[in-house]
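Deliverable D2.4 — example input (C-alpha coordinates):
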Protein backbone atom coordinates (compact mmCIF):
# COMPACT_ATOMS: atom_id res chain seq x y z
CA UNK A 1 0.00 0.00 0.00
CA UNK A 2 0.97 3.62 -0.35
CA UNK A 3 0.66 6.04 2.55
CA UNK A 4 0.41 9.67 1.54
CA UNK A 5 1.38 11.97 4.37
CA UNK A 6 3.35 14.79 5.91
CA UNK A 7 5.29 14.00 9.06
CA UNK A 8 4.73 17.45 10.53
CA UNK A 9 1.19 16.10 11.02
CA UNK A 10 0.33 13.97 14.03
CA UNK A 11 -2.59 12.56 12.07
CA UNK A 12 -0.12 11.15 9.54
CA UNK A 13 2.19 9.94 12.29
CA UNK A 14 -0.66 7.76 13.62
CA UNK A 15 -0.72 5.77 10.40
CA UNK A 16 3.06 5.32 10.37
CA UNK A 17 3.09 4.17 13.99
CA UNK A 18 0.38 1.56 13.44
CA UNK A 19 1.91 0.27 10.21
CA UNK A 20 5.38 0.04 11.75
CA UNK A 21 4.11 -1.51 14.99
CA UNK A 22 2.22 -4.22 13.11
CA UNK A 23 4.96 -4.78 10.54
CA UNK A 24 2.81 -3.78 7.58
CA UNK A 25 4.57 -3.12 4.29
CA UNK A 26 4.03 0.29 2.75
CA UNK A 27 5.59 2.97 0.60
CA UNK A 28 5.59 6.43 2.17
CA UNK A 29 4.66 9.15 -0.31
CA UNK A 30 5.62 12.60 1.08
CA UNK A 31 2.94 15.25 0.72
CA UNK A 32 3.99 18.74 1.81
CA UNK A 33 0.82 20.33 3.12
CA UNK A 34 2.55 23.67 3.64
CA UNK A 35 3.23 23.78 -0.11
CA UNK A 36 -0.32 22.83 -1.01
CA UNK A 37 0.57 19.38 -2.31
CA UNK A 38 -2.62 17.90 -0.86
CA UNK A 39 -4.64 20.19 -3.13
CA UNK A 40 -3.27 19.15 -6.50
CA UNK A 41 -5.67 17.65 -9.06
CA UNK A 42 -3.85 14.30 -8.90
CA UNK A 43 -4.12 14.12 -5.11
CA UNK A 44 -7.76 15.22 -5.09
CA UNK A 45 -8.58 12.43 -7.52
CA UNK A 46 -7.59 9.95 -4.83
CA UNK A 47 -8.66 11.93 -1.77
CA UNK A 48 -11.36 14.50 -2.64
CA UNK A 49 -11.26 16.22 0.76
CA UNK A 50 -7.66 17.24 0.11
CA UNK A 51 -6.38 16.13 3.50
CA UNK A 52 -3.57 13.97 4.78
CA UNK A 53 -3.10 11.16 5.56
CA UNK A 54 -4.47 9.05 2.77
CA UNK A 55 -3.86 5.40 1.97
CA UNK A 56 -4.06 3.78 -1.45
CA UNK A 57 -4.24 -0.01 -1.40
CA UNK A 58 -2.93 -2.40 -4.05
CA UNK A 59 -6.39 -2.84 -5.54
CA UNK A 60 -6.72 0.92 -6.07
CA UNK A 61 -9.14 1.59 -3.24
CA UNK A 62 -8.37 4.70 -1.22
CA UNK A 63 -9.10 5.56 2.39
CA UNK A 64 -8.80 8.89 4.20
CA UNK A 65 -9.29 10.15 7.77
CA UNK A 66 -6.54 9.10 10.16
CA UNK A 67 -8.63 7.28 12.74
CA UNK A 68 -10.58 5.36 10.11
CA UNK A 69 -7.27 4.34 8.55
CA UNK A 70 -5.60 3.14 11.74
CA UNK A 71 -8.71 1.28 12.82
CA UNK A 72 -8.81 -0.52 9.46
CA UNK A 73 -5.10 -1.31 9.42
CA UNK A 74 -5.26 -2.66 12.97
CA UNK A 75 -8.28 -4.92 12.39
CA UNK A 76 -7.81 -8.39 13.89
CA UNK A 77 -4.67 -7.24 15.71
CA UNK A 78 -3.73 -6.71 19.34
CA UNK A 79 -4.47 -2.99 18.88
CA UNK A 80 -8.23 -3.64 18.71
CA UNK A 81 -9.88 -5.05 21.86
CA UNK A 82 -11.61 -8.38 21.31
CA UNK A 83 -14.42 -7.42 23.68
CA UNK A 84 -17.10 -5.53 21.74
CA UNK A 85 -17.79 -3.06 24.54
CA UNK A 86 -14.11 -2.24 24.99
CA UNK A 87 -13.84 -1.79 21.22
CA UNK A 88 -16.72 0.68 21.44
CA UNK A 89 -14.94 2.50 24.28
CA UNK A 90 -11.88 2.68 22.05
CA UNK A 91 -14.00 4.18 19.28
CA UNK A 92 -15.35 6.73 21.75
CA UNK A 93 -11.80 7.92 22.40
CA UNK A 94 -11.16 8.12 18.64
CA UNK A 95 -14.21 10.31 18.11
CA UNK A 96 -13.32 12.44 21.14
CA UNK A 97 -9.75 12.89 19.89
CA UNK A 98 -10.91 14.37 16.61
CA UNK A 99 -13.63 16.56 18.12
CA UNK A 100 -12.27 17.74 21.47
CA UNK A 101 -8.50 17.17 21.48
CA UNK A 102 -7.00 17.60 18.01
CA UNK A 103 -8.83 20.84 17.09
CA UNK A 104 -7.26 22.50 20.12
CA UNK A 105 -3.86 20.87 20.69
CA UNK A 106 -2.93 20.42 17.05
CA UNK A 107 -4.12 23.83 15.87
CA UNK A 108 -2.30 25.69 18.64
CA UNK A 109 0.84 23.73 17.83
CA UNK A 110 0.54 24.49 14.11
CA UNK A 111 0.06 28.18 14.74
CA UNK A 112 3.00 28.46 17.12
CA UNK A 113 5.49 26.11 15.43
CA UNK A 114 4.74 26.63 11.77
CA UNK A 115 3.10 30.06 11.60
CA UNK A 116 5.38 31.58 14.24
CA UNK A 117 2.62 32.98 16.44
CA UNK A 118 3.53 33.73 20.07
CA UNK A 119 1.89 31.79 22.88
CA UNK A 120 -0.23 34.74 23.97
CA UNK A 121 -1.72 35.04 20.47
CA UNK A 122 -3.54 31.73 20.79
CA UNK A 123 -7.33 31.76 20.70
CA UNK A 124 -8.44 31.74 24.38
CA UNK A 125 -11.40 29.47 23.63
CA UNK A 126 -9.13 26.98 21.89
CA UNK A 127 -6.66 27.10 24.77
CA UNK A 128 -9.44 26.45 27.28
CA UNK A 129 -10.62 23.52 25.21
CA UNK A 130 -7.11 22.08 24.99
CA UNK A 131 -6.48 22.42 28.71
CA UNK A 132 -9.80 20.68 29.42
CA UNK A 133 -8.89 17.83 27.09
CA UNK A 134 -5.53 17.32 28.76
CA UNK A 135 -7.14 17.49 32.20
CA UNK A 136 -9.61 14.77 31.22
CA UNK A 137 -6.76 12.56 30.00
CA UNK A 138 -4.79 13.19 33.19
CA UNK A 139 -7.72 12.14 35.35
CA UNK A 140 -8.35 9.00 33.32
CA UNK A 141 -4.72 7.94 33.08
CA UNK A 142 -4.24 8.54 36.78
CA UNK A 143 -6.08 5.27 37.32
CA UNK A 144 -5.19 3.34 34.18
CA UNK A 145 -2.04 2.43 32.28
CA UNK A 146 -3.81 2.64 28.91
CA UNK A 147 -6.89 4.39 27.64
CA UNK A 148 -8.99 1.24 27.20
CA UNK A 149 -8.93 -2.02 29.11
CA UNK A 150 -5.63 -3.49 30.17
CA UNK A 151 -3.60 -3.01 27.03
CA UNK A 152 -2.54 -0.60 24.34
CA UNK A 153 -4.98 0.09 21.51
CA UNK A 154 -5.38 2.41 18.56
CA UNK A 155 -6.96 4.87 21.01
CA UNK A 156 -3.52 5.29 22.56
CA UNK A 157 -1.96 5.77 19.13
CA UNK A 158 -4.53 8.42 18.22
CA UNK A 159 -4.06 10.42 21.43
CA UNK A 160 -0.29 9.95 21.58
CA UNK A 161 0.32 11.61 18.21
CA UNK A 162 -0.48 15.18 19.21
CA UNK A 163 -0.28 14.90 23.00
CA UNK A 164 3.47 14.28 22.73
CA UNK A 165 3.75 17.68 21.01
CA UNK A 166 1.35 19.57 23.30
CA UNK A 167 4.20 21.73 24.62
CA UNK A 168 4.78 23.02 21.08
CA UNK A 169 1.26 24.43 21.24
CA UNK A 170 1.89 26.16 24.55
CA UNK A 171 0.39 23.47 26.79
CA UNK A 172 2.31 22.48 29.91
CA UNK A 173 2.57 18.76 30.66
CA UNK A 174 4.79 19.25 33.72
CA UNK A 175 1.85 19.23 36.16
CA UNK A 176 0.34 16.19 34.44
CA UNK A 177 2.46 13.22 35.58
CA UNK A 178 -0.03 10.57 34.49
CA UNK A 179 0.07 11.83 30.91
CA UNK A 180 3.85 12.03 30.93
CA UNK A 181 4.14 8.45 32.24
CA UNK A 182 1.68 7.27 29.60
CA UNK A 183 3.63 9.06 26.85
CA UNK A 184 6.76 7.21 27.99
CA UNK A 185 4.92 3.87 27.89
CA UNK A 186 3.65 4.65 24.41
CA UNK A 187 7.06 5.68 23.11
CA UNK A 188 8.67 2.56 24.57
CA UNK A 189 5.98 0.38 22.97
CA UNK A 190 6.07 2.03 19.56
CA UNK A 191 9.86 2.24 19.53
CA UNK A 192 11.65 4.07 16.75
CA UNK A 193 8.45 4.80 14.83
CA UNK A 194 7.36 7.24 17.52
CA UNK A 195 10.64 9.16 17.70
CA UNK A 196 12.40 9.44 14.37
CA UNK A 197 9.47 11.21 12.77
CA UNK A 198 9.34 14.15 15.14
CA UNK A 199 10.48 17.23 13.22
CA UNK A 200 13.11 19.55 14.60
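Example output (designed residues):
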Amino acid sequence: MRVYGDLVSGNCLKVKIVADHLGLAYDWVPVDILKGESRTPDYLTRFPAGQVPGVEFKDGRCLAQSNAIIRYLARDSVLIPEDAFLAAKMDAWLFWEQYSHEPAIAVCRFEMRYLGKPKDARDPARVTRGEAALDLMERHLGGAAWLVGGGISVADVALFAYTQWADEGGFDLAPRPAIRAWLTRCAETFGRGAHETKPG
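The two ends are 28 Å apart (CA to CA).
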